[in-house]
Target: Transposase, IS4 family
Amino acid sequence: MQGFECFCFNLDAISGRNWDEVTAKVLSIYPKFLRIQGLERSRFYRRVHYLMPLLQLICLYFNQLDFDELVIIDSFPVLLCQPVRNHQAKVLNEVANIGYCASKNMWFYGFKIHLAVTESGYILDYLVTPVSVHDIQVAEELLDAIPYTPVLADLDYLGKELKKRLEAKGIDFLTPICKNMKGAAEHNNPAILTIRRTIETRISVLNALFNIEHPLARSLAGLQLEIERAILVYNLGFFIN
Model:
């Protein structure tokens, strides 16, 4: 197992999954270096919590690198319970509520994670909002600290006022237009739409590696740590690979 795979495995364990399996695997690879014999999951988890400022500094450093690429933004739903329990669930109610997910054709209790990703797949930033907050309402905030342009988005971000505000900041904001709108055939370039699907692939990878759409965190601090760990490890893999 490579170091990146080991780190991914370790993340899974910290969240409460496969702890014994992971520690055994890590010890078989780095028996003298890591020295985690007898380290309980809860204690290891607390240590990782203390490292949050360091994780953020590492991410900030990476974000200062010059990628010289266009940016793609999108959001995805995070479900905190089965739909049948939507009206009873209270976990993470500071950021979660009930909303509709068109892609899954279902009502659910949870929140949304909004991502900004480069064309090559590096994750620049994220935001967490309740499900009821429309994507168009957070696009400007998501892009505030991102110096790259142009930006690609899907139909959920289509809006004249948003486009004007972003253009005033020097951001070339590109979205498709509805098929029944005048000039749609010329505007909706298939090549651009293909590039935009990059972010869908990144979301699938995050979910496959870290099960990010079904977090185990039950506090805002735990949720932040779970998301930032996943993104940091994913981005480390971006540079390694």
Observations:
- Residues 1-6 have pLDDT under 50 and may be disordered.
- The chain has two domains: 3-47, 61-240.
- The two ends are 14 Å apart (CA to CA).
